[in-house]
Design brief:
Pathway: Amino-acid biosynthesis; L-histidine biosynthesis; L-histidine from 5-phospho-alpha-D-ribose 1-diphosphate: step 8/9. By secondary structure, the chain is of the alpha+beta class. The chain has helices at residues 5-19, 42-58, 88-92, 166-176, 187-195, 208-211, 214-219, 245-256, and strands at 29-31, 39-41, 63-66, 70-72, 78-86, 99-106, 109-117, 122-127, 130-134, 140-141, 154-157, 180-183, 200-206, 224-227, 237-242. The protein starts with a helix and ends with a helix.
Length: 257
């Protein structure tokens, strides 16, 4: 099936109506985990509620998996995967690198998705027509860079602190091989791979709602997204995205040691 850009824009607008008024507004933050800091805000919950209502009205037989409000009907062939605010830590810090992620899987494969950043007025999306951008500078089709060598690549990861034990040693050696390494930006870094500004994103421990929407945006722009072992990324895990198949293979080899 295809997902119309009109429906994607409606999702983005509905989410923005809940997130933007609360951004930089010092709202209440709840920690979801006692042993660490995993924040959630009213904006997260209300944005997901609005997105779920749109999907239920448009596709009542489809399943939904959301970060904040759980799952329903996920035995369906069609399942929407929602992260209302990917980058809640950035959101509560006033940094505009968070985004709303909504992706659609069919029989487990991600076939369409969007990343909306309403504060900057940007929408990255993929459907049957390819991978696209709408925002400052005007609409355009997205395409990854043609980088094939680690020595010429720009790498993003959320933070090296997420790598534990031997995995941290491998990551540190990997980072030494690239031209530029930067940290943070959550979903925005993945969108920049599709946009041709970043070459590699390596992020361990992702959930399905962190990555499903971004898979088709990157793949339809020419990139590759898998786990560190080369498997499908739709179920989350340690995720590697790269601008070209050659660069992806080089990065995967480096991360595996």
């Amino acid at each position: 099936m295809d997902v119309s850009i009109d429906f994607m824009r409606r999702i983005a607008r509905a989410a923005a109506a809940e997130t933007l008024p609360r951004f930089r507004n010092q709202g209440a933050v709840v920690n979801k985990q006692a042993e660490s800091f995993d924040p959630v805000t009213e904006a997260d919950r209300e944005a997901e509620r609005a997105i779920r209502a749109l999907i239920a009205a448009e596709y009542p037989d489809h399943g939904i998996l959301g970060e904040e409000h759980g799952s329903e009907n996920i035995s369906s062939r069609h399942v929407w995967v929602i992260d209302p605010i990917d980058g809640t830590r950035a959101f509560i810090s006033g940094l505009p690198v968070w985004g709303t992620l909504v992706g659609l899987t069919v029989d487990g494969d991600a076939i369409a998705g969007l990343m909306s950043q309403p504060f900057t007025g940007e929408l990255f999306y993929a459907n049957a027509s390819g991978s696209h951008y709408e925002g400052p500078g005007g609409p355009r089709k997205l395409a990854t860079r043609k980088t094939t060598e680690l020595a010429k690549a720009t790498l993003f990861t959320t933070t090296p602190a997420l790598y534990r034990g031997e995995a941290r040693n491998r990551y540190d050696e990997f980072e030494k091989q690239v031209q530029l390494a930067r940290y943070g930006t959550d979903c925005y870094a993945f969108a920049m791979v599709a946009a041709g500004s970043v070459d590699i994103v390596a992020d361990p421990g992702l959930k399905p709602y962190d990555i499903v929407a971004l898979i088709p945006i990157i793949e339809k722009a020419g990139g590759v997204v898998t786990t560190f072992e080369g498997g499908p990324a739709e179920k989350g895990g340690d995720i590697l995205a790269a601008a070209t198949p050659e660069l992806h293979a080089a990065a995967m080899a480096a991360l595996r040691g």
